[in-house]
Specification:
This protein has helices spanning 28-33, 40-52, 89-124, 175-189, 200-207, 224-249, 257-271, 280-285, 289-295, 337-340, 348-363, 408-421, 435-441, 453-465, 500-509, 544-554, and strands at 2-5, 17-23, 62-66, 75-82, 138-143, 155-160, 166-171, 214-219, 274-278, 303-309, 317-328, 368-378, 390-392, 398-400, 426-431, 446-450, 470-472, 490-491, 517-521, 527-528, 538-539. The chain is α/β, with parallel strands linked by helices and 559 residues long. Bound molecules: ligand BES, manganese (II) ion (MN) and zinc ion.
Length: 559
């Protein structure tokens, strides 16, 4: 989507569509009247028509009216924003989704009609008479933020304070954030992975994306610089998240550790990040015995993917660690067929980190970021780990592998150690780590754990800005008992069915070496079995935007 800023009269621009949000019970005419250079009598007719059609500005209401050549824009698209006092960022997200879906529907209807007429005409050997290329190509958006009045329900998140009680955090709504949320949801909602489809209908639908347009943004309360920054941020966030979704969508035979590393090399080259890819030999030299152990059963070679964003001025280096299991069969502790079905998404943590790095490179915060992704398959080949094997991790701790399906924590342990040795001052790891977190929180919130409450709270608040929800799970010292091994320093899996996510967190904590550390378990959130909000079925790219918001909060820059 190409976005332009439009100053002056909102309705003066020649466009296929003019989009206007209307608050509940607001007089449509009052809003439309603000657009001068319009035929006011006709505008009054439009307003009357909308009212007669029952349009009252209720949240999610929508109406498209043709303008029969009486205005510079071909259609007026009205959307209900709901009561102004109830508006939150999620209202604007909803609006972005509705806009995207409506435009996609208009484009598809048009494209299908053209296609069918062409086919019919070809059969009769006559020329098709239909008007072509009427897809929505130019759009004006009159951005209306709910900032004029005090807003009662702004960004909220629930975090735990010192004494452990949960308290909601509120931040006031900002007009630029409203615009960002709208654009972000629009682009996320337009995602369509049709690469492996061969039917014409499917390919046409993918080609008619709602972002295939030029968007002109007009706003009464935001200046050009604010609009520019908001749109730039939103576009960077959503496009990178969609990139992560593409990586996740690829079949596991395609998205191997080698291919994931190639994707990282390209992202680094395109965005001016430094990049290092370590192969098995180098990983062996570093003594990453836990990572190497997991990779032993696979024919595909492992890759340690390292990206670095060096800030010009920086106080610290944030380490982002991603689990990159490109397929998790469970290894010799083999999963069931059902349990294995979607295990190509076990690299979603790494995909989120890659996406985050792409965005960070574009937004250039004043804090350095080191990204480490451990990429390998978890397979039951003849050289595979046996349950009972003992591995020596990079930091010297020995691990008895009692379950080869608890492979994520093994690769993360060495990746965390690597990041600490490379100078990371704090660590955030993100991983599709446990089925237990899906049981506990479903596909509604990700689990978060950590050694430092300030860091955990900051990540939870960063998530709320993008509508990504987290819920903190405990790391009670007793959970460590489940990881006691008879012959090694610890074992990798606790007792089945007992606080699996916390046990995994406890295991990782052993490798954070006392540095501030947070662990995001996205096993539930990284994948949806059915469409929800801006996400279609499949990978969601969950976590990328949260990581970026956190990094931005630590390296705030006045644009
Ligand atoms: N990748 C899985 C976790 C997972 C499960 C992600 C379901 C997404 C959906 C992880 O490697 C795993 O297998 N974890 C085991 C740990 C157990 C053996 C201690 C699990 O959760 O069953
Ligand atoms: Mn596993
Ligand atoms: Zn796994």
């Amino acid at each position: 989507m190409e976005v332009k800023l439009q100053s002056g009269a909102a309705g003066a621009l020649a466009a296929d569509l003019l989009i206007v949000g209307i608050f509940n019970q607001e007089k449509i005419l009052d809003v439309l009247k603000t657009m001068d250079k319009l035929d006011q009598a006709f505008v009054a007719q439009l307003a009357t028509m909308a009212a007669e059609d029952g349009f009252a500005g209720r949240l999610g209401q929508q109406l498209v009216l043709p303008t029969y050549g009486k205005t510079p824009f071909k259609r007026l698209m009205l959307f209900g924003l709901g009561a102004e006092a109830d508006v939150t960022l999620s209202t604007y997200r909803k609006l972005g989704i509705l806009i995207s879906k409506k435009i996609t529907a208009l484009n598809n209807a048009q494209a299908t009609a053209t296609h069918n007429q062409d086919k019919a005409a070809a059969k009769k050997n006559v020329k098709a008479s239909v008007v072509k290329n009427t897809a929505v190509k130019t759009i004006s958006l009159l951005m209306r933020s709910a900032v004029a009045k005090s807003v009662s329900k702004p960004v909220t998140a629930t975090v735990k304070k010192d004494k452990g009680e949960a308290v909601p955090v509120k931040k006031t709504l900002d007009g630029a954030d409203c615009l960002s949320s709208l654009v972000e949801a629009w682009i996320l909602s337009s995602f369509n992975f049709a690469k492996y489809k061969t039917k014409e209908d499917d390919k046409r639908a993918a080609a008619n994306s709602s972002t295939n347009c030029v968007l002109h943004v007009m706003s009464l309360d935001l200046n050009a610089a604010q609009i520019k920054r908001a749109v730039f941020t939103a576009t960077a966030m959503a496009e990178a998240t969609n990139m992560a979704r593409e990586l996740i969508a690829e079949p596991p035979a395609v998205m191997t550790p080698t291919r994931l590393a190639q994707a990282a090399v390209k992202i680094a080259a395109d965005n001016g990040l430094s990049c290092k890819i370590l192969e098995p030999e180098q990983v062996k030299k570093l003594g990453m015995g836990a990572f190497l152990g997991v990779a032993r059963g696979a024919k595909e070679p492992l890759r340690l993917i390292v990206l670095k964003y060096n800030a010009a001025k920086t106080k610290k280096t944030i380490g982002l660690i991603g689990k990159g299991i490109t397929f998790d069969s469970g290894g010799l502790s083999l999963k069931t067929a059902v349990g294995m079905e979607h295990m190509k998404y076990d690299m979603a943590g790494a995909a989120a980190v890659l996406a985050a790095m792409q965005i960070i490179a574009k937004l250039k915060p004043d804090v350095s970021v080191l990204a480490v992704m451990a990429a390998t398959e978890n397979m039951p080949g003849s050289a595979a780990l046996h349950p009972g094997d003992v591995l020596t991790s990079m930091n010297g701790k020995t691990i008895e592998v009692n379950n080869t399906d608890a492979e994520g924590r093994l690769v993360l342990a060495d990746a965390i150690t690597y990041a600490l040795r490379e100078g990371a001052d704090e660590i955030i790891d993100i991983a599709t780590l446990t089925g237990a977190v899906v049981s506990a929180l479903g596909r509604v919130a990700a689990g978060i754990m950590g050694s430092n409450q300030k860091l955990v709270n900051a990540v939870i608040e960063s998530g709320a800005r993008s509508g990504e929800q987290f819920w903190q799970l405990p790391l009670f010292p007793e959970y460590k008992d489940a990881l006691k091994s008879d012959i090694a320093d610890l074992k990798n899996a606790g007792s089945r069915g007992e606080a699996g996510s916390s046990a995994a967190g406890m295991f990782l904590k052993e490798f954070a070496e006392g540095k501030p550390w947070a662990h995001l378990d996205i096993a539930g959130m990284a994948w949806l079995d059915r469409e929800r909000d801006e996400f279609c079925k499949g990978g969601t790219g969950f976590g990328a935007r949260t990581l970026v918001n956190y990094v931005l909060s630590q390296g705030q820059k006045s644009s």
